[in-house]
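Page 37, top half.
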Amino acid sequence: MKKRLAALTMALVMAGTLTACGGGSESASGGKGETSAADAASSEAAGTDAAGTDAAENDLGYEYGEDVTFHSDEPVQYTMMFSDHENYPMKDDWRIWSAIEEKANVTFKLTSVARTDYNAKVTAAVNSGSAPYIVPKIYDSKPYEDSGQIIAVSDWVQYMPNYQKQVKEWGMEEDLKQMLASDGKYYRLPGMWESVAGGYSLIIRKDVFEAAGVDMSKEAEWTWEDFYDALKKVQEHTGKDNIWSDQFQLGCAMNLAANVYGVKAGNSADGGDWGLQDGMKFDFEKNEFYFADTTEDYKEFLKYFNKLYKEGILDPETFTQDSQQAQAKFFRGDSYVLSSNYQILSDIQSQNKMQVEDADLYFMTTPSGPKGNLKVSSAAGRLENGIVITKNALDDLGEEGFIKMLRFIDWLWYSDEGHELTQWGVEGETYTKDDKGNITLNSDIYFNGFNPGASKQLNVDYGFGGGVFAYGGNVDIQLSKFTDAEKEWNERINANKVNQQLTPPVLADEMQKEDLNLIKVSLMDYVNTAALEFITGKRDIDKDWDSYVSDCESKGSTKYTDQVNEIFNDTKDILGM
């Protein structure tokens, strides 16, 4: 049977650096293929594969292509890691598994790992060489890039027509540079969004704020200082301290504020590294990196949160409690502010978790700061978590089988059909579409604020809408996931905030990474600890500031910055800067 192919395949070329040798391992025919991404793409557009065979006359045993449903003639199974979320634990009989099998004739052999242990288990499996073929839900491939155990996927994307369509039509080239390694390649297939939506912000009790005399009509224009003024009114109106008892041990909120103060902050045991990272910011005027967390901007940033703490606005237990404890206080009406994303807010409302009658919850836009009214979610660009593919896949499947797997991944994770399937399920079973393509979830199914009180849940009972598969997509699929209230929140953000410039990546090689990491670990642990001490008053920001800066320098902040800038200057040609 002749197989349908994509009519046109685009070579992914970024400043001349993203074309590289593709498929240097033994092919199924016993030869070694070494074809550039550009050459392979040209060959495929002409109807030939990278090995030079005439694909149009060759029975591949599967269908694939741009906007074509992948389907294998013979059943095939791929091994895959699975991040098992505690709120919707994985089930063998989820409809998503049979839906994928019906469409593609593909099943998975899963290595299921609890979400909280996922990163550690992935690291152990990759480093030992025992990881499954497909490892999704990866936010950063850098820890694995020098292991020799994962594939430089940029060598192979010419075989992925839907992926390349997104890159071309959405202009993703600059975003993809964020993932480059020192060899000019990237090792993670990212989820890609056509447009950046909002991310995390703050839920507030609007009824309490308004009763305190706070004018909510200007909320989208608030600075963090304006938010402080509003909090003071709430404190005075209620006569209570600790009106902000935050979840994520303040790590999320610190990251939200850090973006508009021009610094790096946000790290907690409950949530991990929200944005502290290595303290590096990029000066676009000077075209160089600097250590942001010893600057006057950072000092003012700490003074802000210290003011909230000293005046009894911020609950001292914020820094030690887990998210469940923080949420319980909010539900009881003991606090009135909570860091969150919109899905958490939707779950609170749909599941009637508030224990206060007539509580009116409002999702703020993130306040602006000294560096402007910035869209916090734009700092990372339009890339989402993604997939790393292990060397085991290429070794076990051979080149032809490996390319077949890539084309399956291309359909499931990057085609419009794949996005709709993994997000919403099976048309006619879990959702319907009107003539304009608008999606309506079945009324007996709840998801992300849709159909509160429904007897079933899309992710819990069916497996659709989960983070392993359902991320990235075009504007239509993005908007389909938003309730009217969430659309309104995003409209507020887009109307009032501007995107941030993307920071260039630091293309360190293996030895340079080791050198930098030796400094980073102890330095940033000290910075994080000192931040909490300054905020809680254990250290005086004015009296102890100079000694803090000296301590950072003695722990390597200057040396780290110099090394980062040296690497940056040596790799500007790769980045096209």
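Page 37, bottom half:
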Amino acid sequence: MERHLAAVLIADVVGYSRLSQIDEEGTRARFQTDLNEVFQPTIAEHHGRLVKTIGDGILVEFHSVVDALRCAVGIQQQKAKRNADESPEKRLNFRIGINLGDIIVEGEDIHGDGVNIADRIQALAEPGGIAISGTAYDHVKGKLPIGFTSLGEQKVKSIAEPIRVYRVVLDPATAGTTIGVRRNLRRWVVPAAAVTVILLFAGAGAWWYPWRTAGEQSDVRNAVAADTRPSLVVLPFDNLSEDKQQGFLADGITEDLTTELARLPGLFVISRNAAFTYKEKATKPAQISSELGVRYILEGSIRRAGDEMRVNAQLIDATTGGHMWAERFDGAWSDVFELQDKMVGEIATALKLRLVSGQQAAQIAGGTSNTAAYEAYLRGRELELRAKPEDWVKAVRHYEQALALDPKFGNAAAALAWIYREAQWTEARSKELGLTEEETRAKADTYFAEAAKNPSPMYYRILTAKLKMQQRSDEAIAAAERAVALDASDAENYEWLSTAMIYNGRATDGLGYLDAATRVDPVWSRSRYFTAGLAYFSMDRFKEAAAALEKIAPEAKETSYWDFWSNYLGLMLLISTYGQLEQSADADKARERLKPYLAKAQESEYTGLMAAGEFSFKHYADLERVLVGLRKAGVPELPFGLDPQSPDRLDGTAIRKLLFGHEVQGRNLGTGEAYRRATEDNGTTHITVGDWSDTGKSTIEGNLLCIFYPSESRFCAVIFRNPGGTYAQKNEYLLATHWNRFEFSVVK
């Protein structure tokens, strides 16, 4: 038996089992093509030896770790170009892991820890990415025009000691740099720990789907056991102050401790929302541990009298019920940030987590060092979380006070941007804040611009929503990833990332991030059921989509303002789902269930044209799937009694030729207002209707013209020739949206 040091490269196809279930022969053929045309020539070019393939895995040995990494970079660059020419369902993405270590050679085969570690590291790479061990990094840093991101020390299955892991960054601008894991509580940190969380959960596969029957569910404990990191929940701290109105401080500090602890490399932290389900309940540690899948519980109390504050905290090992750490902190309220940092540091020490200190130059995640601003923000946060528009007025006052005290307080600016953004959509919600819709929209834009100067997770969630609506889902994914990186304990960040993935055409990846959301918060919200339904619908798994969407239960009492949107969009999609399943009776029932929501949204009917505006997919094939289901369900394709099969209807090519690079003039048939539209060759569109004007972007989707205006959101339209129209009357064509009709002629 021979042993020697070698560089080991292992590559694996992402989602191979799922792809094989859809098209086994085609998937295998594509794998073989990649092996023959990409892997083997590149391996030979860099002096490697293909040891073997195992299913969808490839094992390669190199004498030089630099050659191994050059080979991996070449492979991923070639695959990126090939995938760009493939439809999403036919793309094969590989994860690659590289380790430098001792191997055992038996004949032509190799094995041992050197191989095992490469395999474990491969699982930590992103789809289409490369991860390497610390031993490999020590030999290659500075030798290739690439950069690295440190994931810190990772505990992986079947390997006794934690291993250092680095992700390769292929951007030439990062060449020679390594972004490290830093401990910067309340200040800027590189999101290595959060990235690790994403990868672990995305790679774990679907482990719990609450809409399944009991016999179909997987054992949650198996998934928890697969995650070897220490796991913790911060229970709501008790308010022991004589002033019971000080409870917002205890809740706010609990939330901030949750966020800060989640930034520690190697620690998994349950979300604030899941933890608060135990507020003011006498629940045994063992039960909490079992229900949330965590080992450690942090609990405590806060007493504040004037400017003086006392915090008691203790860390419990739920497996034994014993106290691992307990401490009392006395100090002034002005020392609250230092106190929280001290607590996090001592907890990390108790859990034997390694902290890496770094420059504390910039505020982290839109935070503040102004205690008065912080207190005002926490008061606003408590009111906002009641999720009732009438409480928003009070919350806005506190957030504005916080921002006035610290103009760089990004969290406060983002909170204001969020409230005004949600209030802008209807006149009733704007009136709650004493504003018109236009004034509310202007406020939302102003505060969003302020939030962008000191970005927080909330800012990135709003940015994700804006980009998704504009069909810029690639950028939306990047924004959502930043939200997760800044706060890995918030399930909503994963849900937004999942949504962006689905609209990007990556529904399978989107489901993986719902698994991550479920791990940090096991309780499924209506919005999470909608996202799951959208993912399954996009994968043509309509029965599972229907099961998830029915779990939204729109007839049940709405517990918050946000439930409306899940109910509304969920029923829209459910109708199409039943149409695809050819369950006409169920589709008819869903259409009846949607009517009260249409009335509340001041919509007269649901049409395919309306749905086209709501579902802003990157690829038209995903939107067409929705529209086909609606047609099968009997939903009118167009409003105003327009005939979608009319010979006068223009197709997508004709619409582009008519509008792009031209100016049209006419009038709104409903109001008589003058209508002018100028569209540049790249789709940039300038529009004026009466006194209103805006500049947006037009795209052709199938035979639809879809438009995004910042002041009007996204909507779609169809165009018909008017056989009796004349240029003099400016009525040769008719443009119809879901709400309006415009007659026009091309004037330039």
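Margin note: Residues 181-227, 354-363 have pLDDT under 50 and may be disordered.
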